[in-house]
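Issue 218. Parser rejects a valid record. Input:
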Amino acid sequence: MVMTALRDGASGGILKYFLLGLLVMATGGLVFMDIGGFFRGGITSSDAAKIGSNVIPIQQFDRTVRTTLSRLGMSPTQAYQLGYIKELLNGEIRASLIQQKAADTGIQVSTQQVAANIKKLIAPMTQPGQSPQDVLAQILRAQGMSEDQLTASIRREISVNMLGNAVQSGFLKTSETMTHDLAAYENEQRSVDYILFKDADLKEIEEPADEQLLKLYESTKEAYAIPETRKSKLIIIKMAALKDSLEISDEEIKDVYERNISSYSQPETRKIEQVILSDVDQAKEIAQKIEAGASLKDATKEVTGNITDYIPATSVEKSALLEELQKPVFTAKEGALIGPVESGLGYHVAVLKAITAPHTTSLETAKKDIRTELTETRLLDAQYDLAASLDDYLAAGQPIETIKEDLSVEIKDLPITNQFGIGQDGKSAFTEEFGDNAQNMITTLFELGEGEASPVTELTDGRMAALIVESITEKSYKPFENQKEALKKRWINDSRRVQNKMRTLEILTAAQSDGTSIKDLAKAKGRTLSSAKDLKRTSEIEQPLTKAALGQIFEAKQNELFALDLDDGAAIMVVTNTTIPEKLKDEELKAAQNTLLQEMQNEAYTLYINNLREKYGVRVNEKLLQTVYAPQDGQ
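Output the parser choked on:
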């Protein structure tokens, strides 16, 4: 009854959007509800975190997670394992802390500021022929947000940035001494000599027994896992077929037109340009210049020195004007000078540019728009009804063949995929079908059991569809017997590397004990003595040396032997020369200054956030995060 009443409400118009919104939310992470349990400290079982007087509901946080991860092609489980979920939550916590502090400080963001930011946001994305409203609608659909959510997000971002910038602005200068020292540190140069001991030089490595290989296999078994895969179908509502089935008669169009005739009737409008001034003498002078033949804009600039108070020509209805202007404007003739007229805003001088008589749009003219509107409303009705029917069929477990026969739907076989979105060909399985929303669809798929279907939802491309799981292939492991050769090769390589490292350390210890120079050591061991000159901490280093080796090189003492690991072996090395520049280039000093300034500002911001955490208090619902995002048993 309630659903019927809703569907019949408002002539089947706006409430349809509400109902379809509920369908969208059904698979948008809004399945978490507080069952009445409460954790100590005021954080409920459905809140991801509590920050002062604010909470972050898991529904809200989950939308942020899935929107962010869809752009990265990462699943929530992967993100949790990598610690990215906690980083996202920390970002939300920081924003909430700053937002509360901004409110306590009295910082308010006006609607005009928000509108200006939205306009700036969509400007680069607006193509010729597109309206800003269309672009905004596309952005909202892509982000899965409502206009209110976007507005709230931008308002929050502005207030957070204002306070954050204020905190960091206290560090706009750096010490010249610190800048010079940092630049010298970053541009320090070192030269080294080294002897390379390759792993491959060790030829005789004892082969492992099967028992040893089995232990290695068991200890690294996940490396040989074959992830669970799922075969599924996508059931899509045929929108084109729905649209073709709709019929809008001329009688219906006429009825809508007559019932809404006031919407098609336009009162008289007048197009005026004007200037509003606080000085009556200036207003009179401008009027005189207009009478002498000058334009209002030129007269305003000549008298006031600018056109700040000039308002270009705009069409207005009588009721939209100030009371003092209504009679003068709507009794004047086209081209007439009006004013000066005094109002609460000041002194108005206006020129009447054009008069548009009252008129009513004819039925013939309005017919196309009415037909389009009725078609969209009927289509939405039909779309909702079909979506509801499809949900009922799926909930009842009806066979695919029955659904296809009874309903106007298209059924597509989807590629077999694992939970990471990888198909049997090793490529992304769902990207071609779902684009940036692929990971969300995979997450939905892996929340279903075999034979289960998702609720009908609206995809980011506007299609209405549901997923159904045909079959599940459980996670398995590559057999030990099939991996023995690979395990054997790995065992031998690992043993060779360990033995080479131990041999290198023994040689180093003996050389250090005897005081042997690196040249004599190379000669004694029959090895080539190699060198690398003028290395910096940021150098692009050549093989066999590695980026990781640079850290050890710049920590080592000059003229003292040391060992380091390389990709294909180990090396014994010595720093032969260290140069710390006294004279630095301007660009080097500038780079150091920017680095130092950024680090100081980041440190100040971090300290400020930590202070706010203590002031407002922060509690994170780790148990809920684990329940929602951590891998489940068997995954």
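Fixed in the parser; the record now loads. The chain has a mean pLDDT of 81.
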